[in-house]
């Protein structure tokens, strides 16, 4: 995954986000920042790339499917 290393620059959201209120992510050095697109002024959650990678792997494996819908 490539992303901007400048905080608050290059925020990205899933192409599956249809209503405009989504989670967004960007890189800040060795960290990933995550925010709610509906509240961009709220400080983002910061996690390491390894933490974010583990979360994505779990999501891809369906570990959070029960939280949707």
Descriptive notes:
This protein is 17% helix and 26% strand. The protein is α+β, with helices and mostly antiparallel strands. It has one domain. It has a four-stranded antiparallel sheet. The longest helix is centred in the C-terminal third of the chain and has 12 residues, at 49-60. The protein is globular, with a radius of gyration of 12 Å. The termini are far apart. The model is unreliable at 1-7 (pLDDT under 50).
Helical content, roughly? 10-25%
- Can you summarize the main beta sheet? 4 strands, antiparallel
Query: Could you list the spans in which at least 5 consecutive residues all have pLDDT below 50?
Result: 1-7
Overall mean confidence score, pLDDT: 86
Radius of gyration: 12 Å
Order of helices and strands: EEEEH
Tally of helical segments: 1
Beta content comes to 25-35%
Q: How far do the termini sit from each other?
A: 27 Å
Query: Which oligomerization state do the chains in this entry correspond to?
Result: single chain
Query: Would you count the extended β strands for me?
Result: 4
Strand order of the largest sheet: 1-2-3-4
Shape: globular
Indicate how many domains the architecture comprises: 1
Structural class: alpha+beta
Nutshell version of this structure?
The protein is α+β, with helices and mostly antiparallel strands and 69 residues long. It has one domain (12-61). It contains one helix and four strands, in the order ββββα.
Features:
single chain; alpha+beta; four-stranded antiparallel β-sheet; 4 strands; 17% helix; globular; disordered N terminus
């Amino acid at each position: 995954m490539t992303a901007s290393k400048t905080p608050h620059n290059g925020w990205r959201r899933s192409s599956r986000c249809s209503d405009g209120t989504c989670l967004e992510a960007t890189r800040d050095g060795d960290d990933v920042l995550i925010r709610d697109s509906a509240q961009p002024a709220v400080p983002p959650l910061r996690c390491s790339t390894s933490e974010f990678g583990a979360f994505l792997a779990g999501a891809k494996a369906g570990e959070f499917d029960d939280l949707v819908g």
